[in-house]
Amino acid sequence: MVKANLIGVVLLMEVILRFGVDGLSMQYYMMSCPFADPIIKNTVNNALQADPTLAAALVRMHFHDCFIEGCDGSVLIDSTKDNTAEKDSPANLSLRGYEVIDDAKEQLEQQCPGVVSCADIIAMAARDAVFWTGGPYYEIAKGRKDGRRSKIEDTINLPFPTFNASELIRQFGQHGLTAQDMVALSGAHTLGVSRCASFKSRLSNVDPTLDSDFAKTLSKTCSAGDNAEQPFDATRNTFDNFYFYALQRKSGVLFSDQTLYTSPRTRNLVNGYAMNQAMFFLDFQQAMVKMSLLDVKEGNKGEVRGNCRKIN
Ligand code: HEM
């Protein structure tokens, strides 16, 4: 009897894990919008073919979405006359790629109106961008609902590029992410660029953690102004482990990048990922899956927006 009950419980757990009960699941859109995955993938692939730099933008957008109010599409909401939204915060001004999400959303609304959330679109677009640039492919559960709050002041909880390793570990820890998750996720800086404004403070004082030749490269970049772009590594549109090589050479662009190598708490992880790309990919995909589940809104805790820029 006890055994039969136990089997019953295990079977129920299996059903919940696989198909979710008003929750997230891998097959969430299987019946309600079977082409959600390919529609998003094609939209992302077409956008990246036209502009490969958008891959970085989509991955960053997912991070900035998940760290504020959970992965709920709050970063996509436009400001209104009564509300200044997250996207107008200084921390988000260089976010890009909103039109890729809008494009996917429009197609999805035609196929299956009111079904696929904006939060899920961002999570899937980031996943597809990682794969398109040569990174690992990972499956994610779907079923995130869109939030109704997006306030500029909440973005104070994004990490600052001036943070040291301990501050980064603490902040990621507040989201249930380990130091290893944090270093692996920082490896997303294998894609994209930083603007001079985000690192110029490193150039005014002598920063002993910065290679002197690389300091000259950064100064040269900044001679073109605050918005001048510096790639994080030598291959800005390819997902690889070159970012970690750069840290070993004291050529991290942000202070928050270089600190991962300077600090004894995280240096071994940097060395491990520099030596073994497969290990970086594995830890990165696990950490992305974890990040994609931060404070997710399920059921009636959120909505499926008709337009990703506005609450319904
Ligand atoms: C560890 C703490 C982190 C800090 C302090 C940080 C900070 C920054 C800063 C300052 C920039 C440049 C912004 C600009 O100057 O316009 C940037 C770019 C970027 N960040 Fe992070 N970041 C962190 C973690 C992450 C994570 C976890 C991800 C994704 C999983 C990520 C993805 C990106 C990408 C892809 C870019 C390039 C964007 C582009 O080229 O458009 N970052 N980050």
Automatic annotation (TrEMBL):
Record note on cofactor: Binds 2 calcium ions per subunit. Binds 1 heme b (iron(II)-protoporphyrin IX) group per subunit.
Active site, per annotation: H64
CDD domains in the record: secretory_peroxidase (cd00693)
Top enzyme class: oxidoreductase
Signal peptide residues on this chain, from the entry's feature table: 1-23
GO CC annotations, alphabetized: extracellular region
Keywords recorded for this protein, A-Z: Calcium, Disulfide bond, Glycoprotein, Heme, Hydrogen peroxide, Iron, Metal-binding, Oxidoreductase, Peroxidase, Secreted, Signal
Predominant location: secreted
Cofactor(s) required, per the database record: Ca(2+); heme b
Disulfide bond annotation, renumbered to this chain: C33-C112, C66-C71, C118-C308, C196-C222
Keyword Transmembrane among record annotations: no
Domain of life: Eukaryota
Domain Plant heme peroxidase family profile: 23-312
UniProt keyword Heme present: yes
GO BP annotation list: hydrogen peroxide catabolic process; response to oxidative stress
Single annotated GO MF: heme binding
Marked site: Transition state stabilizer: R60
Residues binding substrate, per UniProt: P159
Binding site for Ca(2+) 1: D65, G70, D72, S74, E86
EC number of this enzyme: 1.11.1.7
Compartment list: Secreted
Annotated function: Removal of H(2)O(2), oxidation of toxic reductants, biosynthesis and degradation of lignin, suberization, auxin catabolism, response to environmental stresses such as wounding, pathogen attack and oxidative stress. These functions might be dependent on each isozyme/isoform in each plant tissue.
Family statement: Belongs to the peroxidase family. Classical plant (class III) peroxidase subfamily. Belongs to the peroxidase family. Ascorbate peroxidase subfamily.
Protein name: Peroxidase
Organism from which the protein derives: Acer yangbiense
